[in-house]
Amino acid sequence: MTEKEMEIFEMIDKGHTLNEMAYELWLSPRQIHQKITKLKNEGYFIRPIYYDNGEIKYEFENDLNKHTINIKLYDSSKFKALVISDIHIGNVLENLSYLYKAYDYARNHNIHVILNCGDIIDGNFTRGNQTISNIDEQIERVINNYPHDNYILNFICFGNHDYVSNEFGRDISMAISSHRQDLISAGYGFSLINIERDQFALYHPLNGISFKPIPNKLILEGHHHKMKVKIDRNNYFVNVPPLSDLCFGNQENPGMLEMELLFGNGFIHSAFFKQIGVKSNFEVFSEFNLEFFLKHENYDEKKLILK
Q: Would residue 53 count as lying in a domain?
């Protein structure tokens, strides 16, 4: 173990954040992240802890759950995030300027968490044409061109277009997270977000792979390329609009959702959403509230994966 790695070990033990370690050691947060990744690959059990102000801390513990994210709140009464989906990098209708606008909006509204509901890349099948057909080049474009802010974290539920990277021997979730500490894999197809005493889910259908239904949850769903709200089997589904020009339906607009969850005794009791367009100014297309009367039960990801 190098001297820098030993210093990182000591700072993790003392509860320093990633940004604090970077400042103290005269390294970038990405360099610290790469050194921690190297230590994990060498067999050290280091687990990240995510905070809703964009900070990351670490602890020495083995965590094998690939579809579960734990977020800690500084204000236990509310949680704010941007929700995006279907960027489709590599498609002729990708538009990275929308993604940069999302970051501008987050900075201006004190939002430090972006929930990404999948299809970051276009993969090897597409609607329309591609400017980049090679999956490795699509992934490199994500790593190099996806915006970055030391105080904004992205939690990504990878979708069906992302999943085909495995067929080509390249796991996009590993490829991205090994280079970018701010782009955090929350699994393929579904993600459980544990927050306070409650839980909600991200979802993106995968071809040929299914999961057990997740009852009594707020579920943020990508893949459909249009905004829609539906209640089914005690679930509250919110379909997320695309952050690209791949819009389905005559009335759909590229955009994102601003979400605020409100808590009582650690449980989500209501949510407020804004559908925000990104083509020109930040135009609010719709606003809606959801009141939850749910049976609060938190699920283990292992019980939801169908073998």
A: no
The structure's pTM equals 0.92
Separation between Cα atoms, residue 154 and residue 112, nearest integer Å: 9
Chain segment 118-176, per-residue pLDDT in tens: 999 999 999 889 999 999 999 999 999 999 999 999 999 999 999 999 888 889 999 99
Domain membership of residue 68 (yes or no) is no
Domain coverage including residue 81: 73-303
Question: What is the CATH classification number for the domain harbouring 177?
Answer: 3.60.21.10
User: Which residues, 6+ apart, have CB-to-CB distance to 183 below 8 Å?
Assistant: 142, 146, 154, 156, 176, 177
Please name the residues in contact with 257: beta carbons below 8 A apart, sequence gap of 6 or more. Answer: 82, 83, 84, 220, 227, 238, 240, 241, 273, 274, 275, 276
Contact assessment for residue 223 and residue 118, using Cβ atoms and an 8 Å cutoff? yes
Looking at the structure of the chain, the number of domains it has is 2
What pLDDT, in 10s, does the model give residues 167-193? Answer: 888 899 999 988 999 999 999 999 999
Same structural domain for residues 13 and 88? no
